[in-house]
Amino acid sequence: MSTLYLKNRQEVEDFVRGCTFYGTGGGGLPANGICSLMSEIEAGHQVGFVDVNEIPDDAVCVCPFLMGSIAPHDEKTIKEMESYGLKTSVNSEKERLGKAIQELEDYTGKKATVIVPIELGGANTPAAVAAASYLGIIAVDGDYTSRAIPEIIQITFNYHGKEILPVASVDEFDNRCIIKKSVNPRNTEKLGKLISQAGYGLAGQAGMLISGKELKEIVIAGTLTGCYEVGKIMRESREAGQDYVAKVAEHTKGKVICRGRITAKEDYDEGGYYWGTNTIFDGKDEYKYWYKNEIHVLWKNSEPLVTSPDTITVIDLATGEPLPNPLSKVGMEVAVVAIECRDELKSKKCIDQLGPRYFGFDFDYVTIGH
């Protein structure tokens, strides 16, 4: 682990590619993540993240995150948005996060000095790093999940019993709210999703104020550097004409599950989440994966093969890029890679809230590491 600064577009793309890989189909769209970071570099700002050991114990750490559904808008939704006067976006993703942090600072009277990404994902992580640059503070090389997750309860911050509230929210149309109190963290998630639904997309939210000393006890360190390394390996092996799917699986100690064609897709937007099931046929076996924003269950011939909290990533073989769920289409040639989750996600608390039974399935956590 070390401090890393991104200096040009190639480094940004490598970083975002790795974030998207660990986003397991969710975590936002990589094009937005690239835009967030490049806008800061082009403005002449320093963009990067520092080793957690460089964070002072008395630092004020804040966690900004994009909250809401990543589903694309259909024509009916666009017309409905227009009926509410929601036509012109005024806040980019980094601006939503930056302004949410400022709202939180105004409400609490505390000045944030360190930003901690909540998860790894193509938009959520880069937007948090860009927000740090936008505000002139630092981002830490680490996050609270080591993958992407659909709910803010599914993070090490919550497993350690830290207080998520208050949470400030600013959406792309500049609607602003503060969640002062809720019954429990799951209700905080529900309230945050309802706020994002009013803005028809991803709201920028910020909360989880803790000290640098507390951060060092609960953050999963080095994950942003890990994203950069994965993204760089994928690009370099692809450019060298190598099997980049096998290379990234080897580097992450994962497994290549299959290579095949997407033959069916069923998806919908509900409750502030993007839900769906995709089917892949490799010429011999049928695979299906289910997602609630992110992929959580993969079946082979109707038998559960791997589930969250393990990471399940789909790669578009036409582009060599990790494939976000909203961009998947029938007919795409893809590969699936699965990675055993980190030790921090193997606790009973985590599996109870991120394993298949939490999502309503009648079977236990199945790890690719068995």
Structural description of this entry:
- There is one protein chain.
- The protein is an alpha+beta fold and 370 residues long.
- It contains eleven helices and 18 strands.
- α1 runs antiparallel to α2 (30-42) and α9 (223-239) packs antiparallel against α10.
- It is globular.
- The two termini are 28 Å apart.
Q: Radius of gyration in whole Å, from Cα?
A: 19 Å
Helical content class: 25-40%
Number of strands: 18
**Mean pLDDT, all residues:** 96
Strands, helices and their partners?
Elements: E1 4-5, H1 9-22, H2 30-42, E2 48-49, E3 60-67, H3 75-83, H4 93-108, E4 114-115, H5 124-135, E5 138-139, E6 142-143, H6 156-159, E7 167-170, E8 176-179, H7 185-198, E9 203-211, H8 212-218, E10 220-221, H9 223-239, H10 244-251, E11 255-270, E12 273-281, E13 286-292, E14 294-300, E15 303-307, E16 311-316, E17 321-322, E18 333-339, H11 348-354
Parallel strand pairs: 3-4, 4-5
Antiparallel strand pairs: 1-2, 3-9, 6-10, 7-8, 7-9, 11-12, 11-18, 12-13, 13-14, 14-15, 16-17, 16-18
Helix pairs in contact: 1-2, 1-9, 2-5, 4-5, 9-10
